[in-house]
């Protein structure tokens, strides 16, 4: 019998991508999809790509009935709303992979500062596995609740954490300049993500003030003796999907060769990490769960480059990978 | 009588853009267009947008006849080839605005290291006005030969030079992370600039090794007591045009307010510089000669943002602006 | 003294484009901009491209004060709302170029059927000049109210009307398959025009049911003895701007050569019509007021191709051209 | 043991897509990849997306060694060159799925007229199964050589053939207006497919003169008593992939409801055909082997709409589907 997965908040891009991946999964199936706004519509009315693939009605979320229909919830609600729902789902004994930021940080205070809301389930904060199996496999295995990583943090943590841990780079001088496709901004109609606003234009936003910056520092800080000081600048880029992070660091007696060695050693059992000699672009990983990593020496700095698909390794692929880890399946099921 | 401008190497994107701008210029006209490869074709056969606008045949370059037809040459040849032609044009008494990099650097040795060719006219190197009227008006006025700036350098020099000059930022810790539209790569068919290679993808290239890096250091260095040390990373971005440079600097007792003051003071007579409070995107300047500048404080750094149209302020608009300066016309003629 | 133009409903894409064109116009200036939703903001806050170019606050529309500030109104309101305002503007003696469809059709009944609203000023319907100067110059000259044409109709009427008039094609078998950039759908946030919905996708909509179909039949019918029967299918195309109409007609003893002759004869004094031998793409006319027309023979049919910029010849450029005609200026002022 | 598939001419977009699909196939594996121009490089050097997925060197084609390494050839060579190679492969007893047009038409004379080359293996012409399993399953089953359909023809034949067969539409009045992503133009560097030439532009080409027009007539003609007369106009559309065909037909006592019935009946066992009530866009089928079909009534015509992914159902997905049919596997293996 297949593991039954329900998608909470199923009308967005990450939800669609999760469904698409799960339809290909040998041991999992999608058994419920919820939406407040589009209740009653079929999932294919909202995502026409799913016509003939998945025939489920969007239902309003009722925790009890959901927990009877599903073994695992992919919770795609916004922060704040998510933690509240996650709490109820856990009480109903449903495993949860939470796409929101609600359980990613270890500090309630930090969370409340950056997210501007009171945390609905503060006791749980700091107790939840961060869903990067490449770095936190032990915590994810057998977990009942997983904080699915942010898209930008994934592209920064994966190249940086092993180098920080190995002492190969300085903690206090790290710049992460990231470029993301527009799907990262979600599917709610807003002026800023209209085609004619974003097409043929690139622009930074939330410079040094994006909520993913404390997430990067929090997670990478776990690999460091001292706190990291990452300056993060995201850019909205005229493409559907993909994140390219160009990361400027100062080496400590390490060169490009050493960086590649550390990466290859750390990720030797990680099928989705590719340490490449060429310079990757987001198209190389589009539609996949891969993380392509490269490094170049440039004067007294090293420039790290990471490319992911923001909707897959940066969201739904990671969720499926976490699902695989929770159930002890091969990490790559449904993902290659 | 109008000033007669000829375009040498008229089949590329910058050449087209120059023609388009000059067609709107009250005191200039295009009187000759040259091309080796497309000799005999009409200019509109190569640029269909020019149908009914400009009726000139592409001719092979003959210096003498060209100099009789034109008062000024816009020389759009590749480096190396350009300097050779520029020399002949100057000997034939034609004023020249050189779009190539051949006369931008002050050191022949540096040029030959980065460009890998012997300089065809080394005596002239270091004697040529750098065509940023906002910073080098005195040299440009009455000049007979102008080195039209590189597109990326324009986006870096304009925000950085005044701050370096004012001592507001450190010289030795500057990162320029630039994102350019594909037109910057030229119009020659190459795998890397095919639609399906660049669309839906962003990637860095020539990290710390692009020829515009020494140009930035050379020009900005003129405003500094000590040599600057700029690390430059360009990115190919899926859009036709535009450069967005995100620049990471360390302030010296300066904050964002002070930076804006310095910019506004330096550029108080520069109609194309806009110091803005919002964060600019390339679409705000597309099709214009404007440079939009913004600054944000982020931890112990300042993040400068500059947006230009790479084909206009980054190439052909700058050339027309230089033309205006040479002839003592209002800087904005043909450009607003 | 310059003619004073006010823009009513100034926050959309066509309004911006109109302002951009008028800023370059030698005899006109923008003296007022109105918006209900963004009242109080500066126009540059809504259109950052206008920073340093136009310094006007968005005001709510007050007819009396508007009529004192402006000689001419560019009315960019939605249908229904527009006619009501136009009526008041005319009563206040303001000339009006109406961007809406309210005065394009000759029949109130037809209008009310297709637009689903009661016409606010039915007496005026059928009395208003249709703003295609290439075909209706006599009516436009000295007019006080002009119905600015629809974008799709412009791309269909200009190639078809002369051929219908000359009897060169059959009236009853015409298919107009049009492809439009996304800006045609306006600037209000809607799911369907989000970047990730329209990018990398093309789809038809309103097949045989678009409101521009009766407009095409109405206007072209004026050149025909019998009613035309046009089947019109628009497609949303992943690009900012441009309309390409591929038109399938049956010739009546006419071949491609004859079609070109008719076009060249009809449009011999029309500086914006280019009859070309190559096949035009929308990029050839992007940013311009040109209409590129081509024809190919294909079996027993002729295929006509028309390319325009939907925001310029399809909207704001046409408005400026009409302004020029009303005031007896050269048609091309502000437009080349 | 898996069926061994070799890709001949492996550097293009369809070849990559075929490899990507085969990597997911449970019963097939890629065992050889050939290229004349990039001999010696690894396949991942040419397609960086394949890094860590497929480790094979590009080899020059040697028929004997290829036939020993492979049970089936996916032959991605250009027309003319393909037939020659196909002949040798068949003589070496290798099954072949031919991506070229060499065996699609039934008449050698027609082939030589449209393709301008002498057919290298004329005896075979007219003997080869046309690889649309939805319509030619009987011929494909057990075939050793399959003519993989053209991308545009797939999008026209699938909606039209059943209607022609049922007598629901007229044969002699059919217009196919197709819009294709740029990948259909191949991966060889050419001016016309550079990013800056095709981005932000749409244009028709080869109006009534494209080689896929006789293919449509030939294949659809097999379902008709009389010859069809299709007028076909392709358009280059600014997107990577996808074909949208808008097809104008005249019904014979059939309405939209009847058309859907015929489609549903014909394709009742075809898992990749979706008859939909909404209007499909290419994004709904991007990355899939689906054909989405819709119909609208419009005056005295019916408008049929078909959407496919040109690289999948229009090329490599069809090839894998044919492979499945040849070996008697479920049609969907590797494709969902």
UniProtKB/TrEMBL annotation, chains A, B, C, D:
Task: Quickly give the catalysed reaction.
Answer: N-acetyl-L-glutamate 5-semialdehyde + phosphate + NADP(+) = N-acetyl-L-glutamyl 5-phosphate + NADPH + H(+)
Q: Which ranges carry the Semialdehyde dehydrogenase NAD-binding domain?
A: 4-143
**Pfam families assigned:** Semialdhyde_dh, Semialdhyde_dhC_1
Q: Which key words are in the record?
A: Amino-acid biosynthesis, Arginine biosynthesis, Cytoplasm, NADP, Oxidoreductase
Under the heading InterPro entries, the entry gives:
AGPR, AGPR_AS, AGPR_dimerisation_dom, AGPR_type-1, NAD(P)-bd_dom_sf, Semialdehyde_DH_NAD-bd
**A GO term for molecular function:** N-acetyl-gamma-glutamyl-phosphate reductase activity
- CDD domains xrefs: AGPR_1_C, AGPR_1_N
Q: Which SMART domains match?
A: Semialdhyde_dh
Keyword check for Amino-acid biosynthesis, yes or no.
Answer: yes
Q: Where in the cell is it found?
A: Cytoplasm
Enzyme Commission code: 1.2.1.38
Active site (record annotation): 151
**Could you confirm whether the keyword Thylakoid appears in this record?**
no
Which pathway does the record list? Amino-acid biosynthesis; L-arginine biosynthesis; N(2)-acetyl-L-ornithine from L-glutamate: step 3/4
Coiled-coil stretches noted in the UniProt entry, renumbered to this chain: none
Family affiliation: Belongs to the NAGSA dehydrogenase family. Type 1 subfamily.
According to its UniProt entry, what is the function of this protein? Catalyzes the NADPH-dependent reduction of N-acetyl-5-glutamyl phosphate to yield N-acetyl-L-glutamate 5-semialdehyde.
For this entry, the protein name equals N-acetyl-gamma-glutamyl-phosphate reductase
Q: Which gene encodes it?
A: argC
